[in-house]
Amino acid sequence: MNRTRRLSVLATAAVSAWSVPAMAQDAGSAIAEELAAMRAEMARMAARIDTLEAELAAAEAQADAAPAQAAAEPEPEGDATTISWSGAPVIESESGWSFKPRGRLQIDAGAIDAPNGTGAADGFGSEVRRARLGVEGDVLGGFGYKFEVDFAANEVEVVDAIAIWGSGGLTISAGQHNTFQGLEELTSSRFISTMERAAFTDAFGFERRVGLSAQYAATSLLVQGGLFSDNLGDLSNRNWSADGRAVFMPKLGDTQLHLGGSLHYADYEAGHEVRYRQRPFVHFTDDRFIDTGDFAAASEFGAGLEAAAIAGPFHVVAEGFWQTADRSGALADPTFFGGYAELGMFLTRGDTRGYKAGVFDRVKPAEPVGEGGFGAVQVNLRYDYLDLVDAGVIGGKQDGYAVSLVWTPTDYTRIVANYARMQYRDAAVPAAGGDTSYGVDAFGVRAQIDF
Predict the structure, then answer these.
(1) Most buried of 27, 165, 282, 393, CB within 10 angstroms?
(2) Does the domain spanning 103-130+188-208+216-450 belong to CATH 2.40.160.10?
(3) How far is the C-alpha of 280 from the C-alpha of 443, rounded, in Å?
(4) Whole-number Å distance between alpha carbons of 240 and 243
């Protein structure tokens, strides 16, 4: 018996209970009217209960059907976003947008020891060598971007500001970026095997410039070239340069080979002066014992050769670069030369030097700290030569003998220590008694983290 029927029975019984005494007592029409009103109210209550029961049943049925209906319906269209990790968060959308912060911090300390009489501020030195922050990523249509600034030395300097387009093996870059002057220069400072690059890279003024460039990369071939103005910090002027590089990089079994060459031509506006000089293997000193001084040049032409091989824990690399300055009038044009040769090996099992796209790349320890290992330990021996004496220009000659020890605890951290003995001839800075042939010792340590 449902609720409605029960209420009807109760109503009937109540009516009967009241009706009999009412007729027996003949209480009159007032009581009859009251009973009729009660019966009507109870009927309305029964109808309302029926309505509520029907609504409840419908709601329960709808709730039971909702999961199946949601599974059957297609998801609304949208641009799904994922966040992954590659040294820093990488935010990527399904449509092709991406965003990744990047940066590095390098803190140096050490000392140099120079002969008396040179006036060098030798002894202890330290600095924040690089403190960079930036972003990189992709946008729709094959385009990308990279922007990075350096806050070292209490100054803000734009390092990279590049708009990029790529398709297949072709990449077009516009903005401030590296020119194409050799393996050592193009390898990131995060991955070089000593605290500073080879002497000729700084001496010959290799730096980022504003320009338009293109590169084509295949499995074992890389061709790069571009037209550039000047470094962003030196504009506006009328200087321009053309730079190109080609690399053959086959892999023979487990051995990575690298053979390359580069060309550089710069044309300078009237009255422009050049100066070739270099520090003694560390950056925290401003002393340059090898220095041509300023002299006027209408243009310069450079050519370089590079070769390297990586085989398991071993690597070998050598480069040479010739730079000719075109002096005005009857003055002879000097040609200067710099180069280096290096041999290195890992002392830890399973580690090797990274290589990618024509440059040395990140070392990834086989057993990093934090995962039960000690990280990667690498030792390197280097000979670094620079000759700035020619055609009446006496800038000095350098024979540098260096050893470095690199500890890479994790993929994104490094400790570098290096010692060098720089032997100078015809030095730009004479020692006591006018001696221009002497040695300078340099020692440095770097702590590095990047992302």
Answers:
(1) 282
(2) yes
(3) 10
(4) 10
With 0-12 CB in 10 A as exposed, 13-18 as middle and 19+ as buried, what is 26?
exposed
Total-model pTM? 0.82
What ranges do the domains of the chain cover? Answer: 3-62, 103-130+188-208+216-450
Q: Cα(32)–Cα(287) distance, rounded to whole angstroms?
A: 121
Confidence of residue 23 (pLDDT cuts 50, 70, 90): very low
- pLDDT per residue as tens digits for the range 291-309: 999 999 999 999 999 999 9
What is the structure's pLDDT at 162? 98
Looking at residue 204, its amino acid is: F
3-class secondary structure, 311: strand
Which one-letter amino acid corresponds to residue 220? Answer: S
d(CA 146, CA 177): 10
**Do residues 198 and 338 touch, judged by C-beta distance below 8 A?**
yes
Spacing of C-alpha 118 from chain mean position? 40
Largest Cα separation within the chain, whole Å, is 149
Residue 426 falls in which region: left (phi positive, over 0), alpha (psi -120 to 50) or beta: left
- Nearest 10 degrees: CA dihedral of 439, 279, 124, 158? -170
374-383: pLDDT as tens digits: 999 999 999 9
Give the residue carrying structure tokens 């009489």: 117
Do you find a cis peptide bond into 84, omega within 30 degrees of 0?
A: no
Q: How many CB atoms are closer than 10 A to CB 18?
A: 16
